[in-house]
Amino acid sequence: MLTLGRIAAVAALIGGLFGSHSLARARAQAIASQPRCLNIQLDITPGRSNGAAGHIAILYRLHNMRATACTLTGYPGVRLLDRSFRDLPTHLHRGGLVLDGRRTPSTVSVASHGNAWFALEYRDVPAADGSCTMATYLMIFPPNDYLPVIAYAGQGGVSVRACAGELEVSPVAARNAGF
Asked: What's the CATH fold of domain 39-169?
């Protein structure tokens, strides 16, 4: 026999199941309604780095300087630049990072004055017939944007030595989850 207490418990359980789905849907709709982050609102700076077995990875912070939230989805574009801002040979590959692991792209909501992150990895030991390019700056294209942000390649203005201009880039992430 159903009592009023049992009916209330079943109703609460069903409401909880559908309520959590509704909350997830509402959150997804809120993120989808946010505009994408544009180059003009982002400050991109190199952070800590890590190295092993001829690979160097640098974590980059994308800081939203605006008072409104925005979204980033996917991989940034990156070009190597010399100290005079001239374009250097660059071969960018998505995913496949050795030191930072492999992440799948997702939509990241960047709060007002909040941060998102990506990692860039390169080899610093030349192959027998290869050369290593010294890059002082990077031309970084936020995901799904056509205009770049110019940033120092390494922390404190230090150049990076990317052999054969080969770079691996991670997708943008909401957390500083790398090394």
From this structure: Immunoglobulin-like (2.60.40)
